[in-house]
Amino acid sequence: MRNLLSNKWFKFISVGLLYSLWVLWLGSYWWFIGLAIIFDIYITEKVHWAFWKKKNPPNGKQTKFVEWVDAIIFAVIAATFIRMFFIEAYTIPTSSMEKSLLVGDYLFVSKTAYGPKTPNTPLSFPFVHNKLPLTHHTKSYVEWIKRPYKRLKGFGDIKNNDVVVFHFPEGDTVATNIPTASYYQLIREYGRERVWSDTRNFGEIIAHPVDKCENYIKRCVGIPGDEIKVVNSQLFVNGEPQKHYEGMQYDYVVKTNGTSINSKRLDQLHIANDDRTVSGTGYIFPLTEENVNKLKEFNNITSVTKIVEEPGDWDRNAFPSDENYPWNRDNYGPLTIPARGATISLTTDNLPLYQRIIDVYENNDLEVNGGQILINGEAADSYTFKMDYYWMMGDNRDNSADSRFWGFVPEDHVVGKAKFIWLSLDKDKGFPKNIRIRRMFQTIK
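^ thats the sequence. predicted structure below, dont judge the formating
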């Protein structure tokens, strides 16, 4: 067996077979040229591919330095390959998914669940996303080579209520001082002139390709073809109430008899320090149903009232930010999620819903001339979608920047499915109490 494993032909056949399977999965058959390199590495040995090593070192051994370089190069290549095609680490930075996922949870995201995307910008610094380490906003990638969207075969499709990591759809343009904020909402709130000129507060305005937009994590509540509607904070999908999750929470006004609530009691309810807002004679907390019932049992609590925005009370930041759709976070829709191949009638009234899809996501030249809609220079009264789209919402419903504010998530923005938590750290506590042992290695539902 030892002789077989060390046989050069056995090595070539084994590595060549694995490489061939990868090329077939990739679907770019010109990569088969790599078999010639593998053949030379194991059989002919005409080219010294590992140029950092001595070809015939004394006593057949490399120096310790060369061994370290060899190990680092192998680790970088292997880790980059795994991160690109199989699994990637992700950290929960905000409270939009609490209490299902907590700030400080470290996750593994499966790329094979829905199929990995090939990179749009393949030339980039390894192990970072869109900026170089120790810099404010220096790009970690170059755009000399750009590739179109392509997704490899995965184990399945996105289903309702999957927890999904995706590229922020409005992250194509970024104010560098607040990179997680929507540039387009900043424009609506402050005006384009101020956002571009006030570099002290907003920073520089830069553009990112799709695969370098900031990563978000939400629950997919609507898949292509679904109709979604929110009535008094209750989400309906195709007319049915969405399944309730234990971690789902809403904002409540909590009033007391004039005494304060013991902070240790709030710790026991796992209400983070950042979520404790004092309001007049009471508090505002994001609460799960379980915590609502527990708070009502406190002796000094007089009322626990859910905060719900009234129907017709238009939030100008609610997608599509148009007066014809006077929606807010608690009363929204109805709205049908676009599906690839579906055709809609297109009018100036419903154009705000689909304008970004047509113009940005599907790369058409869209114009409105008077009451006429022009797509790629031709008059259009209908449109057929080229991609599937999804509707994402956070489980922390009243503290989540989600599809209610920036709309649909295109399929080419989907990164993968959140699978399990491998580490969880509480930022409100010191080591070692900050380690949430019970959350480690939990699967994500």
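The longest helix spans residues 64-85.
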